[in-house]
Amino acid sequence: MSKVAGLSLEEKHPVCKFKVGGLQEFTLIDFPGRPACVIFTQGCNFRCGYCYNVELVLPERFGNTMPLEEIFDFLNNRVGLLEGVVITGGEPTVQQGLEDFMASVKALNYPIKLDTNGSRPDVLKRLLEKGLLDYVAMDVKAPLYKYSQVCGVHVEVDKILESIRIIMSSGVDYEFRTTLLKEQLTEGDIVSIAKLIKGAKRFYLQRFIPGKTLDPKLSKGQSYSEEELNSIVQSIKDHFEECSFR
Ligand code: SF4
């Protein structure tokens, strides 16, 4: 029977339900300060109109999942070459088997960065308590009054606030980030988001790049100009240790 870092790959084992939709073998920009690979999980509980990972979000567009043996063969072969593993989505915290999967990655001594939409604070808390996370990047999608609108589903905003609180008090390195489309967020909205995470270590404003999107109407969505982003950063940067746009 196949084994993954001591975990049985028997059909019933939770790690087997962990669905990987893709693997990027190398990145220098996704895990701050570390050459890393990126593992993309399949499935998401949000439907953000600007999302470009359509194949990882809409079940009818899912491709084949990657066998976990393949992922761990890759990780085993890169020990000493890669210095981190980014787990992104989709939304990783909706995956069954996430904790076991991360424990197997950790058993190979890889630091882990998790990208999350913050909708599952219970999962986040457990992963942090188990020492499975070395860096957390959470999307703060909108001010609370627009959260469900921007995410395309009903969002329990208390859970978003809880995730923000957990991350900021975790002692683990982290960042918050927001993707900006003029159609969705005004400058006033961005200031409201900044207030939600006031005192955070890092806040990055992400420029929307027009292209394939979940909501076709947003595929040509309007980004903020560099000048506008600069001025927004100036108006909120005092709330954070680090604040910039990218
Ligand atoms: S952008 Fe939204 S829909 Fe797309 S993966 Fe992230 S949370 Fe899910």
Along the chain, the helix and strand elements come as: EEEEHHEHEHEHHEHEHE
Ligand roster? iron/sulfur cluster
Q: Give the strand order, joined by hyphens, for the main sheet.
A: 3-4-5-6-7-8-9-10
Q: How many domains is the backbone divided into?
A: 1
Number of helices: 8
Structural class: alpha/beta
Radius of gyration: 18 Å
CATH superfamily: Aldolase class I
Are there runs of 5+ residues with pLDDT below 50, and where?
none
Mean pLDDT: 94
Main pleated sheet? 8 strands, mixed
Strand % is: 15-25%
List the helices and strands and how they pair.
Elements (H helix, E strand, L loop, with lengths): L2 E2 L2 E2 L11 E8 L8 E6 L12 H4 L10 H10 L7 E4 L9 H10 L4 E5 L4 H9 L5 E5 L7 H5 L5 H12 L4 E8 L6 H10 L5 E6 L18 H11 L5 E4 L1
Parallel strand pairs: 4-5, 5-6, 6-7, 7-8, 8-9, 9-10
Antiparallel strand pairs: 1-2, 3-4
Bound molecules: iron/sulfur cluster (SF4).
